[in-house]
Amino acid sequence: MERLDKIISSQRADGRKEVQKLIKSGAVLVNGKICKKPDAKVDPDKDEIVVDGQALNYSKYIYIMMNKPAGVVSATEDRQFKTVIDIIPEDMKRKGLFPVGRLDRDTEGLLLITDDGDFAHSITSPKKHVDKKYVAKLDGEITEDTVKAFSDGIEFSDGTKCRSAVLECDKNDKKTGIVTICEGKYHQVKKMFLCCGLKVVHLQRISIGGLYLDSNLHIGECKLLTDLDKKSVFIGNIH
Ligand code: URA
User: What positions does the domain RNA-binding S4 occupy (predicted)?
Assistant: First the structure.
């Protein structure tokens, strides 16, 4: 059992004070009855809580799939640019959300956003080797040498070594490749291609582990992950 104001506040972006006002105004029902006491003890898993006419679907953590647009940064705050947190729809917003890993500002595609630190860590920890798949459009053609260099493991000019990566060339367009990496080094895909003399002109992430970007999700849109989606992140990784 927890305080009503604490439970409601944990599911929203606004603070405890605002929630207390809301409760006192009579906008909250518990099991069908108006409850004006912020400190009323309720069980979020059993009691039915309705806020402003909408059922509170309580969940300890939230897991969001975003089709990240170019132009927004993968951060919680930024002085100059909009962040991925800024563009989450209101009904999915709550305190403590952060992106799981980073995509460059100009990179599009699959980004997970959560408030569950353990889940994020199990994806981003270098020890876990979760695969990330990207579609890269390039300023030149992929050759067999490029594919081999990726497979052998690219070494950056500063001596940083990348693990073996899989590069598949689009059959109809040699300037497009699908790259699978199991690390998350800064600008990794762009730098790997640069080492092979190719510039990435467009980059989109399409999967994390066995979880693929939902093709119905337009650029900039978000959806909640199902339990199965969450599990699929850890399925089918190469290493
Ligand atoms: N590699 C890059 O170079 N950029 C990204 O955004 C992700 C992977």
Answer: 2-60
